[in-house]
């Protein structure tokens, strides 16, 4: 299994991987409107950590991923969607996916990850170091992400002394 940061740069490789990831999201996040998922995944301001399995024939299959939008000036990334294919869940891939997403955010010079977590994903995010207590000053994120009622805004503060992949 391989993890790769992919952005829609118009290349065939990126489009194939993002299409695979969009299909995982649509299956695993049935409450999300499909056009909305497609719009963000292919949006050029968004980027995705893709989790790729190489089949014996050499074909690459996307088994999961995490789509986020970096806001470089504000110092954070907002995670929009995150999912692992049903038959690969609870094997530790979700944890590795988040570790790669954190390291990528550090590469981009960001200090925080924010997400609007589904209620049933709150426990997962807590295990990944996210908290419901938002320490990022409101002026850095309000107006940038949709903080509507019924969702749980969660934050992870990135620690540059930690190698999340080790
Ligand atoms: N509720 C409680 N605990 C959970 C859940 C859950 N829904 N999912 C995983 N965990 C726990 C695991 O038990 C594990 O705990 P442990 O370390 O003590 O053993 C830990 O979280 C990590 O488990 P992984 O195996 O690394 O996670 P997994 O590969 O299953 O991926 C994920 C987790 C991505 C949430 C997956 O279950 C999934 O795709 N779910 C459906 C889609 C979804 O809900 N996505 C998040 C929506 S919110 C958003 O997109 C912003």
TrEMBL record:
<feature type="domain" description="N-acetyltransferase">
    <location>
        <begin position="1"/>
        <end position="159"/>
    </location>
</feature>
<protein>
    <recommendedName>
        <fullName>histone acetyltransferase</fullName>
    </recommendedName>
</protein>
<comment type="similarity">
    <text>Belongs to the acetyltransferase family. GCN5 subfamily.</text>
</comment>
């Amino acid at each position: 299994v391989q993890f790769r940061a992919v952005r829609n740069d118009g290349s065939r490789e990126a489009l194939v991987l993002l299409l695979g990831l969009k299909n995982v999201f649509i299956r695993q996040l049935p409450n999300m409107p499909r056009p909305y998922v497609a719009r963000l995944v292919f949006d050029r301001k968004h980027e995705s950590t893709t989790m790729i399995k190489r089949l014996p024939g050499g074909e690459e299959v996307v088994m999961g991923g995490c789509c986020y939008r970096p806001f470089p000036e504000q110092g954070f990334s907002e995670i929009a969607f995150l999912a692992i294919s049903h038959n690969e869940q609870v094997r530790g891939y979700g944890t590795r996916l988040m570790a790669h997403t954190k390291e990528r955010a550090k590469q981009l010079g960001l200090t925080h990850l924010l997400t609007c977590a589904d209620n049933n994903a709150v426990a997962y995010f807590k295990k990944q170091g996210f908290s419901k207590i938002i320490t990022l000053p409101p002026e850095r994120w309000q107006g940038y992400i949709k903080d509507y009622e019924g969702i749980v805004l969660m934050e992870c503060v990135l620690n540059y002394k930690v190698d999340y992949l080790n």
